[in-house]
Amino acid sequence: MKYIHKIILISILLLAIFLRFYKIDTIPSLNPDEAALGYNDYSLLQTGKDILGSSWPLHIKSFGDYQPNGYAYLALPFVKFLGLNPLAVRLPNLILSVLTIFIVYKLVLLLSKSNALSLYSAIVLTLSPWHIHFSRGAWESSTALFFLLLGIYWFYTYIIHKKYIYLFIFPLPLVISLYVYNAVRIIAPILFIVLFYSYIVHHKTELKKFILPFLIGIILSIPVIVSLIYSGGASRFNGVGLTADLGPILRSEELINQHQNSQFSHIIHNKRILYLYAWAQNYTSHFDPNFLFTKGDDVPRLKSPNMGQLYLLELPFLIIGIVFLLKHYRSNALTFFIFSFLFIAPLASSLTFQTPSALRSLPMVIPLTIIIAAGLHYFFQLTAKLVPHNYFFISIFYIYSLFFFLDANLIQAPNLYPFAWNTGFDQVVPLINANKNKFKNIYLTNKYDQPYILYLFYSKYPPQNIQSQIKLTPPDQYGFSTVTQIDNIHFEKINWNNIPISSLVIASDEIIPTIPTQIINFPNSSPGFKIYIK
Amino acid sequence: MGISSYIKSILSTKISLIFLILLVFNPWNLYIFSGHQSFVLPAATSIPSPASDNNPLDLLLLHSPITNQIHQFFSAYFNFFSPRFLAFDGQWLLGSDFPPYLGSLLFPSFIFFIIGFYVILSQKINRLNLLVISLLLLSPFFKSALIFSVSLTYFATLGINFTITKYKSIYLKLFILVTYLLSFLYYFDLRLFHHL
Predict the structure, then answer these.
(1) CB-CB: which of A251, A407, A524 is closest to B101?
(2) Which ranges of A384-448 would DSSP assign to H, the alpha helix?
(3) Cα separation of A469 and A462, whole Å?
C-alpha cells in the first residue's frame, strides 16, 4: 500500500470513529434491547446466571423472545471494566462497526485490485447514514455484519492468495455471526453457499480441501441449530414472521367470498399464494426508492427523520455504479459478490411482516456502498477533463448531506421521537429509588417499551434478587413477554381508580384527575413523565 | 442508425409481437379506457417541523422551504417507481378505477421489466432505448398514463426478448407462456369479479 493511501485510510477511520463515538453515551437514549444486553451481562458477571436464572445461556429471554446472546458475551469485558452504563454496552458494536469499514476496504482491494475503488468504498461507508445509525448503539445486526464480512474476506483471501491458514479460519467468524443475530442465520449460510458454489464450479478439484473447514463450521454451529429446534429459538420467528400477519388470510377470505365460495376461487385465491405474494412484496420493498432515499424505515427508533437509508445525492452514483460494474467488471468476483449480497441481504427481513426493515436488512448497506463507490470512481474518471474540480463539488454535496444527517440523527430524532427511545428513564429511575421506601406502592406507566428492564439497568438492581422473583407475563400476539412487578414497583397501564392509597404514580399522558407534583420533560419540552401522589 | 430505421428494423422481429401482446393485456388499459388519460401525482407526506428553530443558519440550510419541497417532490416521484406500485398495488396511486390487488404491471412483466433494465444498462445505449428511458422517467411529470404504461411495457418486452434469446430452452419459453396465461387469468378475475 502506498504511503498516501495509508494516510487517507487512517484519516477515514478516524473520521468514522468521530462520527460514531460523538456523544454515544447519551444520544440516542438507551433502548430496552440494549438495557437487556447490559443487565444480563451484569447478572452473568455477578452470579454466573442471566436474569431468568439460566447459566451462560445461548439466548436471552428478557422479553420472552429468545434473542441470541452472542453480543452480550462480547460486551462482558466492557461491562466488567467500565461498569453498567450505556457506553459499556455500546462500545463493542462501535469498535466492530469501525473495523467493518476496514474490512470493506480490504475486501474491495482484494477483489478489484483498485486502491481508488477501495478507498471510495471506505469513505462512502464511513459517511453512510444507515451504517452510522446502527453503529451508534448496541445493535447486534451491525456486529453480526462485521463477522459475516470478515468470514467472506478470509474466504476470498484463501481463494486468491492460497494461504492455507485462511482456509481453516474463515468459518469461525461466519459461525460467530450466527450466535449474534437472528437474521444472519438465514443470510450467512445462503450467501456463503452461493459464493462457494460460484468458486467451486470452476475449481472442482479443490472441493476436498473444504471438507474439514466445513466440518469445523458445522460442528461449531450445532448449538445454534439445536437451540433453534428445541429451545424455542424459533419462537422469535413465530412472533414477527410473515405468518403472524393475518392480512393474506383475510384477503383470501374476502376474494373467495366474492366468488360465492366457488372451487375455482379456492385455487386462484389460495392463502398460500397470497402469502407468497406478500413475501414478494416484502422482499421488493427493500429496493423501494423511497425507503432508500427519502423515507427510510417506518419505525422511529430505526430512522432519522426526513431521510432515507442513503443520501439522495447518492442516487445518480448508484445508477452509474451499476452501469460501471456491469460494463467493466461483469465477470469479476467483485461484481458477483456485490449483486449476490445485495439480493440475499433482504431475505431474512422479507420473511417478517414489518418491512422494509432497515435493521434486519442492514447487510444491504455493504453492496450498496460498493456500488455507489464504483459510481463515484467512474464519475470522477469520466468527468476529470470536463470538470476540473469535480472532487470539490461532490465533496461539498457530501458535506452538506452529512450535516443534514447529523442534524436529523442527533438533534431532530431525539426531539421528534423521544417516546421511541425511552428517553427520561435515567431521571425516572433515581426518583423511584429515592421514594421506594416512602410509599407502599410505586406505579410506573408501561406506555414506553419494557420499562422493567430499564429500571433494572439504571438502578443496578442486585441480580440475585431479580432472579428469585422474576415472573414473565404470557407472550402477547407478537411473542413478547414482560415483567409487571419488581418488589413494590408495578409496571402497568395507569388506571387511577384502581391504584391504592399511599402510592407514587409515574404516568405518561393517561387521564389523571389531579395535578402532577412533578413533571419530567422530554428534550422537546413536552411532558414525558408526570409524577402524582395518591 | 436513425430512430426511424431502428424502429423499422425491430418492427419485423418478435419484439414487436411480444410488445403488442403485453400492451393489449396491460392492467393500465382499464384505467386509460375508463377516461383517465392522465394521473395525479400523490400528495407527499408532510415534513415535521424542525426541533430547534432558534438557529437561522440551521433553518436556512437544513430546513428551508426549498429543501422540504425537494424532499416532498422526490418522495412523490419515487412512488411511481416503487415495487409496491409497479407489481403489487396499482390502486395505491391510481385509485379505484384500477383493479384491486394488482400492480401496474403483471407480476411476470415486473420481473421482465427489471431484466429489461439490466439489458439496457449492461449494453451500449441506443437512441430508441434512451428515448424510452427518458419517457419513462419524465412521464410522471407529464402525468401521462399512456406514456408511462407504454414505457413500462417496452422494458418488459426487452426483458422477455433477452431471456428467450439467451436461454433457448423450450421449457423456459413454455414456463414463461404458462406464467403469463395464469397472470392474465388472475388479472381478468380481479378485473371482472372483484373490481367495483
Answers:
(1) A251
(2) 390-406, 413-416, 425-435
(3) 12
Which residues neighbour A345 within 8 Å (Cβ) at sequence distance 6 or greater? Answer: A187, A286, A361, A362, A363, A364, A366, A367
Task: Compute, in degrees rounded to 10, the torsion defined by CA atoms A29, A32, A35, A39.
Answer: 160
* Contact between residue A334 and residue A346 where contact means Cβ atoms under 8 Å apart: no
Question: Residue A135: enclosing H or E segment and its boundaries?
Answer: helix A129-135
Taking contacts as CB-CB distances below 8 angstroms, the residues of chain B near A255 are 101, 194
- Give tens-digit pLDDT for A282-330: 999 999 999 999 999 999 999 999 899 999 999 999 999 998 898 877 7
Q: Spell out the alpha helix ranges (H) of A417-508.
A: 425-435, 451-459, 463-469
**Among candidate residues A123, A90, A16, A132, the one with its CA nearest the CA of residue A407:** A132
Higher pLDDT, B55 or A311: A311
- Chain-wide mean pLDDT for chain B? 81
Rounded Cα–Cα distance for residues B29 and B32 (Å): 5
Cut 0.95: pTM above it: no
Closest-CA residue to A361 (of A122, A142, A51, A132): A142
> Residue A26 — φ and ψ, nearest 5°?
-120, -30
Give the gap in angstroms from C-alpha A216 to the nearest C-alpha of chain B. 39
- Dig out the grid coordinates for B52 from the structure: 430547534
CA nearest neighbour of A470 among A454, A481, A485, A491: A485
Which one-letter amino acid corresponds to residue A498?
N
d(CA B161, CA B113): 11
User: Amino acid letter at A511?
Assistant: I
**Residue of chain B whose alpha carbon sits nearest to that of A254:** B194
Q: CA B80, CA B102: separation in Å to the nearest integer?
A: 14
Q: What is the pLDDT of residue B121?
A: 82
Instruction: Count Cβ neighbours within 10 Å for each residue of A209-234 and write b for 16 or more, e otherwise.
Output: ebeebeebbeebbeebeebbeeebbe
Q: How far is CA A469 from the centre of its chain?
A: 31
Element (H, E) at B83: helix B83-83
User: A-chain residues within 8 Å CB-CB of B107?
Assistant: 280
Q: Which of B74, B84, B193 sits opposite A258 (nearest CB)?
A: B193
**Cβ neighbours, 10 Å, residue A448:** 23
C-alpha pair distances (Å), A270 with each of A264, A276, B29, B109, B188: 10, 10, 27, 22, 17
Helix segments in A259-364, DSSP class H = 263-268, 271-285, 289, 315-328, 333-344, 347-350
Q: Which of A284, A309, A312 to mutate to test the interface with B (most CBs of B within 10 A)?
A: A284
- Alpha-carbon gap, residue A131 to A151, rounded angstroms: 19
Contact A400 B61 (CB under 8 A): yes
pLDDT at B91 over 90: no
Amino acid letter for position A380: F
- Write down the H helix ranges in B88-126: 91-94, 107-122
A2 three-state secondary structure = coil
Under-70 pLDDT residues of chain A: 1, 231-239
Residues contacting A56, CB < 8 A, separation 6+: A44, A48, A49
